[in-house]
């Protein structure tokens, strides 16, 4: 048995931090070495510092772990997952990278930087090639660096779009999302705002969908990202759902395609070979359903242990070519699970500190 | 004081029927003469026959009224509002029209017929001109006839679209709806299907939005309807909201327009002069809000006593021209209130049995 | 027309403050002179300082009013309604009373003090007699003083209990509440905590029900409160309801009573004569329903414009004598409306500054 | 490897039937031989006959199984689980018992019969002794018979009550429930009735709690059931929760007990030794939490894979002795899982057809 790689979580007490804990507390490749959070929590037992908001309870093995401060000097691991709020993530993540740590980040701060990879392993693993340039340009020592994953609703959309873009070339797309409250963290959305209601606005979200998707669907050539050339418009809405973002998509292609071809393409897609069979990989990144009224967050959110995107209602679009509905788990595939999968990919590639020599095939 | 016009309700015990009762039980122009329902209910006291599902209780004056069968011979009034389910509406409404009754219908059965008006008073009152042709063609005696109003989500959308189509000419539009459960009637949507969930499918709804909107936004020339020439695609979703359909719209115009021009046009619009100041008319058919996160069903659904559509988030659309959100009360403006307003318009025009001679200016 | 009494609101920007604004912005006896809030809000336009959380929008007449600091020197009115959080209410309310202002408070801080009246006008108006003693003991000048209303769930329960206690003498009672999220203010309960969930705990609530109810159902003799001698136990729960607290009650009486006698007693009860016909009084303080599955918050919360408590399911209790369900609007009858009704009662009694000489009969 | 026992499900297409399928489709002791339902479904593929309402999809191995009619002649298995609605369960279950089949029933029809066991394995396995008397009295051939489990809310309450009754003797108890919508089956509760609402009434439920609990907590002596002598009152409410019934309990004991003693008794309790370690047994039938605001349905419903009851808020009761909150999964522990556990207990006892000779220890 290979030695597991020690990892830490920055922002371990918050909502996304707790998602990381669910995924990492008994991970086959990673060993949870540091739970880091704000000064206020540092020094406390994790069970005291965190208000556990999901189902069940804090894993027994972590209840008594002392929380450390989210500073490079206080964290032992060389690989850290960042569940930090964007208000503080910029500074802290940079400090960790400068200290030679590899940061896998959920925060939006560096996603659109020209030397920062924004990656979904099944879609654009090649973007990780930019890491060397990043280190050189920014002077990060050793294996220091920042790898990001996209906004939750964008990840759900891009997993459904990538196979179609690869085959038919998307030219135009309309996106309308209905997003779960867990996407806003905790305490997040007040119940008085959302019970029996729809809020047709999520701050900054439409812009993220309209830009991050193009970076991930685009290429990486000669050391630079080339965003996909797609005209996109997004409408983002908050709905009274706990977990699971639903995304309605109307698509226009370069190469005309029928709904049947689209469904068949999605069904056949397995994602980049590099991303298959990782510990957190789902059996299929995209699952296509024929049920007339699926996907639904309550019934499909746990498909592939929250790592699959479920696509349904693939049909002709009277304005563009094809329309469909995609749905995925926003705090698993769309947040913590995305970072963990990125880390697993890096480990397989031997690019994670401690993963050298093909130790994690 | 003018004598009120006697009216009846077909399907008076169901959800839409109850909405009619709320609007008509103390109406200044109409007197509720007949509460008609299925054979099963006929003969019962209304309070016993109807399971009252909204707030409050059955109006005191109607509790002891005996329900009659939904047959022309059992109904005294010459004007009837139809809240019938489409499964039975086709046959029954036709029987009433053939018996010389004027039917104001919520059902979908005859909406798209070439001699049946599909009307929103503020938008296309001129379409009522087809009634004479309808009577001649179908042999309806006297004032017999069928006037319809559109599907609930279509009405909400069209009220926001009409001012813009009139001024800028809509060429393309993308529609994504989030619809309240009351739109499915009672018992309607099982709670196990919708609590904390989104259902991305409402049977037949997308087709209605894609066709009914074009008929209402289109013209009526030489005795024929000329549908608007707009490329439309719709995504219809059910969400856990009681009342109020939210509609996200992306619009492409013939004459380019900025978000400011769109907002100003909507603010200035008062609808067709014929429809102003009717008993059920709202002060403004369309209200524009500048709040960044409105309209919201829970907070705005009662605007204009449920008869106004509230529009917000008017902004540039990166793919077409402008995008916005519209929201309106689906069982008031989108159903019973729509029929009542149509009847008031006909009364003002002197075209309702009993309204002759300018009695209802 | 009598001159209206100038009043202020302390904590005008919060959730309860907004409820006060709904009730007071066009009140026939009171004129809203001061909107006071924290230092942070002072100086801002009300529309900018308050995040309006209920339906509709800030009343037009108040949008541009400047918020003042919640300090006696900054507030002109001699009568102030306190919507302050208990964390700050203690000090601020005392400062106002010492400055000669009469404070009508929603906060829990002084409710159980032996010289502070805790009043429901229909139930125990006589408790206001303690005001003189309060002023003397505490050295409040002029008309300075503090009058409180109870916790929201307690008010709902006590309105149903008072008629029964007056006639049959309650000895024992079980109380189980299901309370709306608006009772926790705004932002209050996070949606992740309550969507599709029940929280079987509301901090301090059970103790309030168990003590405040006894003070209000008790007497006031020789200048002292004599709490009712009732053994009470309460279970308080939060449920995903917007407005309306539902209270299940099992009651044991001194004088045995049947469900029929209980229902008849509740139906006949009109409350203390002093409280009838005030501007905010409902037609009936308690409404009894025979429907087998009512009261329900969604359907009955607006009974009597939110000021009536609706009682249903009056039936035999196998353990004590009778059980029943009571439901009332927690932010109207249970909070702001309770304070306003207390103020109206004091105005009628000529005990409010500016109400002398029978000006408000 | 022992040969598995063939079992069938009556009412396999409904909501409870689907719960049985989840528990039985890969059960170590039982082999699902027959899926029986109404005439209307008979002959169809299961995937076509059942509208699958929970998460995920119909187990692959059952999609193509042909549904048979719920008649003894059409069902091969000698052991059948009944998920039938009480409207038809009486007749059908009796027909199966008369045909020599052992029926494990969820329906209320025979629960209170003097020769029918109403069993929770951890609580009153001895009641199964009545089966011989039942067979003799009713003339059931071979291993024919009827074994029932209680109503869902009663099971949750009784698991918390049994340890306390055994040690301290319960004399009086007050029960207030907040029950999930899944308890009403599918389509069950209309969303218009329950979204943002509480319904303070569930038909027949309070009577079931007040009687079934006494039978299960009572004894079985000389061939007869002796109900526990406890004065009980119940208030049953429906709340907008998907799964998990929450039960507030106030308890008065024969032997006075403190909250600490109560908590310690619950913590120590393992249930009857006969019921430990069965395939569906949870590690602990009752779990006690110290969190101040737990148990909560959304966070605790899956404890022990839905088979544990979680108890919290054990505290002094000012009127009786102790109060607490219990919560459990109504369609697992409170329905299908209860029947399956009863069957496993019978198999261990060698009393299930096919379990003779200690085959299932």
Explain what the structure shows.
Four copies of one chain form a homotetramer. Chain A is an alpha/beta fold. In chain A, the strands form three sheets. Chain A has a six-stranded parallel sheet, with helices on both faces. The longest helix of chain A has 17 residues, at 152-168. In chain A, helix 5 crosses helix 10 (332-348). Chain A has ten helices and 14 strands. In chain A, strand 12, helix 9 (297-300) and strand 13 form a beta-alpha-beta unit. Chains in contact: A-B, A-C, A-D, B-C, B-D, C-D. The A-B interface holds A 172-174, 176, 178, 195-201, 210, 231-233, 235, 237, 239-242, 246, 248, 250, 292-299, 312-313, 317-320, 323, 325, 327 and B 172-174, 176, 178, 195-201, 210, 231-233, 235, 237, 239-242, 246, 248, 250, 292-299, 312-313, 317-320, 323, 325, 327.
* Element order of chain A: H for helix, E for strand: EHEHEEHEHEHEHHEEEEHEHEEH
The helix/strand class of chain A is: alpha/beta
Rg for CA atoms of chain A: 20 Å
**Unreliable spans of chain A:** none
Please state the average pLDDT score of chain A. Answer: 96
| Greatest interface | A-B, 42 and 42 residues
Distance between the termini of chain A: 12 Å
Shape of chain A: globular
Q: What is the tally of helical segments of chain A?
A: 10
Q: Trace the largest sheet of chain A across and list its strands.
A: 3-2-1-4-5-6
**What level of helicity do the residues of chain A show?**
25-40%
